[in-house]
Every structure is written in C-alpha cells, then in structure tokens.
Amino acid sequence: DSSGGINSILLRPKEHSHLLSVGEDGSVCLWDMNRAGKGGDSLLHSFPEAHMGPALDISVHEAHPNVAVSV
After folding, report:
1. Strand arrangement of the beta sheet that strand 28-32 belongs to
2. Mind spelling out the 3-state secondary structure of 11-24?
3. HSE-CB for 6 with a 13 A CA cutoff
4. How does strand 6-11 pair with strand 58-60?
C-alpha cells in the first residue's frame, strides 16, 4: 500500500522471492519480487486494515512458514 511508510520488511525463509511488509498505515502486505520489473504487479495480497494503528514489525513462525504475526 502506498498510503504510508513501511516500518518492517521480512524475506520469507522458504519462499525467497516473497516479502512481507508492515506499514505506518497499519497494513500488512505480501509481495512477489519475481513479478517486479516484469510488467506485473508485485503486490500479491494486502490486508489494509490489519491494525488500527501503525504496524511496527512482522515475523514468520519458524516451524510453520505460512504463519505470520505482526504487531
């Protein structure tokens, strides 16, 4: 989401082309860097109202890489 600054970026350990970001606007976004620069939108999914205030950090569960938590 381009409406606020990015507070944290995380490279997903099992999917090296996927990034997770959290923003000042409270959004959580999943990005595919393989799509960047190829004419496609690199944003795979956005959760624009994941937080009522700024989202500060994001982490992925070590044993379950499809599970993420943001604060």
Report:
1. 6-11, 18-23, 28-32, 43-47
2. ECCCCCCEEEEEEC
3. 13
4. unpaired
Tens-digit pLDDT profile for the chain (71 aa)? 445 799 999 987 677 788 999 999 999 999 998 888 777 789 999 999 899 999 999 998 888 888 889 99
Torsion, Cα of 49, 60, 1, 3 (10° steps): 70
pTM of the model: 0.81
- Residue matched to tokens 């595919």: 32
Q: How far is CA 11 from the centre of its chain?
A: 9
Instruction: Cite the beta strand spans of the chain per DSSP E.
Output: 6-11, 18-23, 28-32, 43-47, 58-60, 68-70
